[in-house]
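User: Can you predict the 3D structure for this chain?
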Amino acid sequence: MDKAGWRAAAAAAAVLLLLLGFLSVSSVSADTLLSAPLNVTIKELEVNSAVVTWEILEGDPVIGFAITQQKKDVRMLRFIQEVNTTTRSCALWDLDEDTEYIVHVQSISMGGSSPPSQPVFFRTPKESEKMASKSPDKVMMEEFGHAAQLRAGELIIIVVVLIMWAGVIALFCRQYDIIKDNEPNNNKDKAKNSSECSTPEHPQGGLLRSNV
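Assistant: Here is the predicted structure, written as structure tokens:
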């Protein structure tokens, strides 16, 4: 083979190596690149809390998630991250009532994080609106539950006070019985002492008199 043939073969080998390298890099990138979470939804919206849920593409090697939470028109962010989990939901807590929030969700794999999901906007309700949206039966049940808790606490206090009073009365009765049992012994001792202190009589019946 002449010099030109060797050059052509070397060029073909170089091109082949470049193609193989490009294909290997593409396959690695395809394996490690995650898709952004889909169908991000806000559920169980309350005055001070909410739950965000999402879905992922089947086959993505997801090992966790990251959530950014931000008040609208405010730069401060709250960042929530959890790994070694397969959950597809997360609770958002300590929210302000009647406030609009923006939420993004990212998937996490061993190779890094996915692009953020599409932003989700939601507004927390007012306390008065939440109470108005509740049915009368539900409100009545909640009030009944609070009343039952108060009554249970009052009953516990009453029972404790009664037990204390019963203990005081039992102690008083015991002390009273001890004092009552000791009274006959005290009377005998008093009678004995009074007889010993009385004036002695003469053996013939007369009283002893001193000679003047």
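The radius of gyration is 47 Å. Confidence is low (pLDDT under 50) at residues 22-31.
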